[in-house]
Specification:
The chain is α/β, with parallel strands linked by helices and 405 residues long. It contains 13 helices and 20 strands. The chain folds into 3 domains: 52 residues; 196 residues, Rossmann fold (3-Layer(aba) Sandwich); 123 residues, Rossmann fold (3-Layer(aba) Sandwich).
Length: 405
């Protein structure tokens, strides 16, 4: 039996993905010689309703000076974070006397909007290479991991925060209690903690299993977030669904009793219980669905190979690491992956060692089929490539099931 990271309850895994590499460790041939692997199993705690990895690599292996994810490479995400920051400014009536802190500020894609509006802000970003991009935009950044100790320092050296924000970061952090203690310390009385992450309900309903990888130690629901907030005398006061990352949820947390709990929270918790997110059965069904996708996709790729078709992939995403390694997709089945991120180009994918090539070469490669790893940006990508794909070439997608279009 394993111990829950939130409430110390015992639980068993519901899916075992086997040995996995670091999802973002796109590497040179030499770096592949000592490739790090860990056992990736996922479990559900019936006491606090938290879904979690049983083992997570050390944070320094995942977030470091060569971290290969830059949020600003997507135009959609630039627009998304502009709207996010504007909504916070409006909700909290932010002005030049306010103070905003972002946990995991990446390359400044969110905080740049507060800088433009002359609202004082501070980024917390442990990966130095993306933090430097943020600093070049005039954003003040602390290059450390956020926790209770850092929150104490910030509240002494700056001021209490009107808003603490985070996007696609909270689910990465195993020491969740220190985060909530830090939030409790740093938030002013009327302050809000607003964060968004891939939503467990969407992952279960869509079978988007590739949201599970080393960085995502937790998969959140309103049930589990409400539970941990209450443990720290905080309260979940609003939830707002987002379409980012194939289905996310934005959670708003405040000091207990200060703000009214919205009907959204009550309705979502009721829905989560209806679809069984508080029971083990839903997760066993999920595992069966994942294995069906695995069998269907491998059968399709083998058939295409036997028919002499050329298959390439689009988007060297973190999520693709789970797909290629759990399914056993090698360069024998998928020739290469095309990607726009320079730090990933001319390297090899983690574990599966599929070559990653610059996106500029995609159209010259003349594929018959394109496996879309960046499926959560499918609308943006398919629109961009519509003329090239035409009637002769086909997309392969696998969420919520395997489909050729």
């Amino acid at each position: 039996m394993n111990k829950c990271l939130i409430c110390d309850n015992s639980f068993n895994p519901f899916v075992d993905f086997g040995n996995m590499p670091i999802a973002n460790a796109f590497s040179t041939k030499k770096e592949l010689e000592n490739e790090y692997l860990f056992s990736m199993k996922v479990g559900f705690c019936e006491n606090c309703n938290m879904v979690q990895l049983l083992e997570q690599p050390d944070r320094e292996k995942m977030f470091h000076d060569n971290y290969a994810f830059f949020s600003s490479t997507s135009n959609y995400m630039i627009s998304h974070f502009r709207k996010f920051s504007n909504s916070v400014t409006s909700l909290q009536n932010l002005d030049q006397k306010s103070f905003v802190v972002e946990i995991g500020s990446n390359d400044g894609i969110m905080l740049q909007n507060f800088v433009s509006d002359k609202i004082p802000c501070l980024g917390i970003e442990p990966s130095k290479n993306v933090a430097e991009v943020s600093k070049s935009k005039g954003i003040e950044v602390i290059t450390e991991f956020f926790d209770k100790l850092l929150a104490d320092k910030i509240s002494k050296n700056y001021q209490k925060a009107d808003a603490i924000l985070s996007a696609n970061v909270m689910c990465h952090i195993p020491y969740m209690h220190s985060i909530y203690e830090g939030v409790k310390t740093l938030l002013n009385e009327e302050g809000v903690f607003i964060f968004e992450d891939p939503y467990l309900g969407e992952i279960i309903e869509k079978t988007s299993f590739d949201q599970i990888y080393d960085e995502h130690v937790f998969l959140f629901s309103a049930l589990s977030i409400s539970h941990i907030a209450n443990m720290h005398d905080l309260e979940l006061v609003n939830v707002e669904p987002q379409i980012t990352h194939g289905g996310s949820m934005r959670y708003t947390i405040a000091h207990k009793g200060v703000k009214q709990v919205s009907q959204n929270v009550i309705s979502l918790i009721k829905k989560e219980k209806e679809i069984g997110l508080d029971r083990n059965d839903a997760y066993l069904d999920f595992t069966a669905s994942v294995n069906k996708i695995k069998n269907d996709l491998i059968e399709l790729l083998n058939n295409l190979k036997n028919a002499g078709k050329k298959v390439v992939a689009y988007g060297a995403t973190s999520k693709s690491t789970t797909v290629t390694n759990y399914f056993g997709i090698t360069p024998n089945l998928v020739e290469c992956i095309y990607d726009t991120t320079p730090i990933k180009q001319n390297k090899y994918s983690p574990g599966a060692h599929i070559p990653v090539l610059p996106y500029d070469q995609f159209r010259d490669s003349n594929p018959d089929y394109v496996l879309l790893f960046a499926w959560n940006h499918s609308e943006e990508i398919m629109k961009k490539e519509i003329d090239f794909m035409g009637d002769q070439r086909h997309w392969i997608t696998y969420i919520p099931n395997v489909k050729v279009s």
